[in-house]
Target: UndPP-QuiNAc-P-transferase
Amino acid sequence: MIYIALLVLLIGIELVYFKIADKFNIIDKPNSRSSHTSITLRGGGIIFPIALITAYFLGYASLEITLAVVLVGIVSFVDDIKPLSQLPRFASHVVAVGLVFHDLGLFAESLWLLPIVFVLLIGWVNAFNFMDGINGITVLYALTAIMSFSFLSINNSSLPLLITMGLSCFVFGLFNIRKKAKTFAGDVGSISMALFLGYFMIKTIMETGQLGYILFFSVYGIDAIITIVIRLKKKENIFQPHRSHLYQYMANEMGYSHVLVSSIYAGIQLLINGLVVYMEIKGNLSYLIMIESLVVLTVIYILIRRFVFRKIIQHSF
Model:
């Protein structure tokens, strides 16, 4: 019953936010780099940090992770309304990562490990944020990760928290996984969710000693890294909005449904996650297997990207 009540509460909060966003004109106007064509309410992803606050008061989440997610959520929400400079955004990320480290006891680990985890977590948060862009992709990918973490026995004690965040994804998805979305996540949604997922990735790896779980983020990770490399080669500003990700080409240039493309990304990641769990159960998830898997997935991604580009070129003539 508690989860049904949570679901109703989160739906109510989201609907109230829509009224506020509409009144104060918190909207996303399409431009040349957008994958949408109509004005849409921005910041619907505010439901993610709100869900975490609710989880904290129910005793499901620690104070540190709650403060971390709320901090980046507030700064990102302000940035959604009125763009901020890099300094306050980066500062909030640094403080949030520090809170995550404290929560997970990372400050007691070897000093050489801290900068590595710091860079990886900051990189993941920004990559996840950059990957947002078409209806359904952020929330379906987040839901896939949450489901995968929930399946692991090591996270049994965290199930109430994971279920609560999963419910927030479901609520947001009701208004975003559509041909014409009613709302977009905004930075408040994508960055807060990215930090939450990054926290669980580090937590899971630390408690299991299994680095192979990094494959849970492989689809987004590979797309983000390859796209950044390509944009750097073109001497583009990688911090500016763009339409260079594979999923954007599929949705925009090839004309596939946003929801279909988002579902493909989430479905492929879910399949990979299932194989990862299976290999771990069988005791076959070694560092070598992890590296080989990343190489194979990267090659497959590059081949698919080249295929899509050939199709786009053919259609342009």
The longest helix spans residues 287-316.
